[in-house]
Write a structure and sequence with these properties.
The complex is a heterodimer of chains A (294) and B (229). Chain A is of the alpha+beta class. Chain A has helices at residues 3-19, 21-58, 71-82, 95-106, 111-115, 135-143, 155-197, 199-207, 212-252, 261-287, 289-292; strands at residues 61-65, 87-93, 124-129, 148-152. Chain A has two domains: 2-55 and 161-291, no CATH class; 60-152, Alpha-Beta Plaits. In chain A, 74% of the residues lie in helices and 8% in strands. A four-stranded antiparallel sheet of chain A has the order 2-3-1-4. The two termini of chain A are 24 Å apart. By secondary structure, chain B is α/β, with parallel strands linked by helices. A six-stranded mixed sheet of chain B has the order 6-7-8-3-9-10, with helices on both faces. A four-stranded antiparallel sheet of chain B has the order 2-1-4-5, with helices on one face. In chain B, a hairpin with a 2-residue loop joins β4 (56-61) and β5 (64-65). In chain B, α3 (96-106) packs parallel to α5 (140-152) and α4 crosses α5 (140-152). The longest helix of chain B is centred in the C-terminal third of the chain and has 16 residues, at 170-185. Chain B is globular. Classes of the chains: A alpha+beta (294), B alpha/beta (229). Chains A and B meet through α1 and α8 of A and α2 and α3 of B. The complex binds adenosine-5'-triphosphate and magnesium ion.
Chain lengths: 294, 229
């Protein structure tokens, strides 16, 4: 490809953007709005994922041991637990350790017990499963084992939480897919409008002897520029808003872990630019196809 | 240079515009195609420009059967001919200068060349002052001359022109004809459809007359109508 052709293509693309001012503006706006919504969902979904992973990490089964077991029997039980299906990790917590933990959490409230040698707690096992969703099932099995007095995993709360997380995920996914279709439809239509307006222009270029790629390149570059410009706005907007949101959450919702902006924003911006440029370039390529067959 | 054998043209709506056309045009000739409105002049010109394909027959230009060109070859073929369209076909959102320059950019001309030659061509057709205007800001005759400037800018060896003087006053018409004649003298083949009797009679060139889609007369150094003999 001749260098001067490349220069010509870019000049043409920019000239065309200016010439078709309103259409260019409309294309940029459509890309910007859809990518803004897309980006918001991306941030939301990533954070939901992050929070749920965090919560899931903390879910475990606490299996309390009957307090008349010998050390050997307890060890036996531990081996039994670790060999269960779907179990990832089993940790023995003696009642002394349990009391120690409690004291760390509650401080002086439990001070008296130790000195008086009274410990109302039981020895227990903390059991984690490979997949957090398996916890209710595994807990039911553990409950039937001899030597286990009681099993605790926040039964209802955990079940509801898992259902809720699953629902959020599916709804989010449905939204993303719906959005992708809407965006594609809107962008295809906008570009079709611009190309329709230029069907005559394309024909004339062919009559004068322009090859198809000579006609195509400026349009494709124009699409890429419009798409990239369209993605720039949501990229900047979301970067600003997300930073604000995280700062705000750190003060007002300190218990809620949000993904660090430094980690998530760079990929987001790259993703938006990539999608914008691709949609723009492919959009013009596809919507001008039928006009080229003159 | 142009060889047409048994060409028929039927438009998609069933109108038969040309019937059994046979015609040979040599390099360097200046040929008028005349006839009443609807006789088929434009159809013949457009067939030679490979705007559409004939219903039957063979059209050879530059020794190649242009009915058998592939899409890319059509582009290459059109670069080698200059076409003046009856309906101008200018790019409305580009200036006069840009319209003419486009034909040069298409063939990959250097920007320096474009800047040098486009004003020359505009001067030849008498549009020097109008370079920065858009086609819709021009009169019909001026648009026609832009189209002519675009047709000659790449110095093609064949120019086909559909009524290039159709919208011009007699004086401007004569200027355009002088221009075409000069180009012709330097070896360019020119094929021109017209119903401008005065011009045809004055130029004393080959005249091909169409009537209802048929060639009814073909004479060297001819005039517009037979009774003028
Ligand atoms: N696009 C078209 N579709 C259908 N019929 C057409 C089309 N163009 C021309 N015709 C018909 O073909 C015939 C020849 O038309 P053409 O345009 O070649 O005539 P012409 O000699 O150039 O006339 P004019 O001097 O008015 O330009 C006419 O009967 C016309 O109605
Ligand atoms: Mg005509």
């Amino acid at each position: 490809m001749l260098i001067r052709n490349i220069i010509y293509y870019f000049k043409e693309a920019f000239a065309s953007i200016l010439r078709n001012g309103w259409m260019s503006f409309a294309s940029i706006a459509v890309v910007a709005v859809t990518l803004f919504i897309f980006g918001s969902f991306f941030l939301l979904n990533t954070n939901v994922q992050y929070v749920t992973d965090d919560i899931k990490e903390q879910v475990e089964i606490i299996a309390y041991v009957q307090n008349d077991l010998t050390a050997a029997e307890t060890e036996q039980l531990r081996l039994q637990l670790i060999q269960l299906d779907k179990v990832k990790e089993v940790k023995y917590v003696s009642k002394e350790e349990a009391l120690e933990r409690l004291r760390e959490q509650l401080g002086d409230l439990v001070a008296g017990y130790e000195e008086e040698g009274r410990n109302p707690l039981d020895d227990s096992f903390e059991v984690r499963t490979t997949i957090p969703e398996d916890i209710p099932e595994v807990a039911a099995v553990i409950e039937t084992l001899p030597g286990i007095r009681r099993v605790d995993y926040g039964t209802d709360v955990v079940k509801k939480l898992f259902n809720f997380i699953a629902a959020v995920k599916w709804v989010g996914l449905a939204f993303m897919i719906g959005l992708a279709f809407t965006a594609m439809f809107l962008i295809a239509n906008t570009i079709k409008l611009t190309v329709n307006a230029r069907a005559k222009e394309i024909m004339i270029m062919k009559w004068v002897g322009a090859t198809e790629w000579f006609i195509r390149w400026p349009f494709v570059i124009e699409g890429i520029i419009l798409g990239s410009l369209g993605s720039l706005l949501p990229a900047l907007g979301l970067t600003y808003l997300y930073n604000e949101a995280v700062t705000w959450a750190q003060i007002n919702l300190y218990f809620l872990p949000l993904v660090n902006p430094d980690i998530i924003l760079a990929p987001l911006v790259k993703l938006l630019l990539l999608i914008g440029a691709t949609i723009g370039g492919l959009g013009s390529l596809f919507s001008m196809r039928r006009f080229l067959k003159v | 240079m142009i060889e047409i054998q048994h060409v028929n043209m039927v438009y998609p709506n069933g109108v038969g515009a040309l019937k059994d056309i046979n015609l040979t045009i040599e390099q360097g000739e200046f040929v008028f195609i005349v006839g009443t409105s609807g006789a088929g002049k434009s159809t013949l010109i457009r067939l030679i420009g490979r705007e559409f394909l004939p219903a039957g027959g063979r059209i050879r230009v530059f020794g190649r059967d242009i009915t058998k060109l592939r899409r890319r070859e059509v582009s290459m073929f059109r670069r080698n001919i200059g076409v003046v369209f009856q309906d101008f076909r200018l790019l409305d959102n580009r200036t006069v200068f840009e319209n003419v320059a486009f034909a040069m950019q298409v063939v990959g001309a250097k920007p320096r060349e474009v800047r040098r030659r486009v004003p020359e061509a505009l001067e030849m057709v008498g549009l020097t002052g109008k370079a920065k205007l858009k086609p819709l800001e021009l009169s019909g005759g001026e648009q026609q001359r832009v189209c002519l400037a675009r047709a000659i800018i790449n110095q093609p060896s064949l120019i086909i022109a559909d009524e290039p003087t159709g919208n011009l006053d007699p004086k401007t018409s004569l200027g355009i004809m002088d221009l075409l004649k000069n180009i012709n003298i330097r070896g360019t083949t020119i094929l021109m459809a017209t119903h401008d009797r005065e011009i045809v009679d004055r130029m004393k060139q080959r005249v091909i007359m169409l009537e209802n889609g048929r060639i009814v007369r073909d004479e060297q150094r001819g005039v517009y109508s037979q009774d003028a003999h």
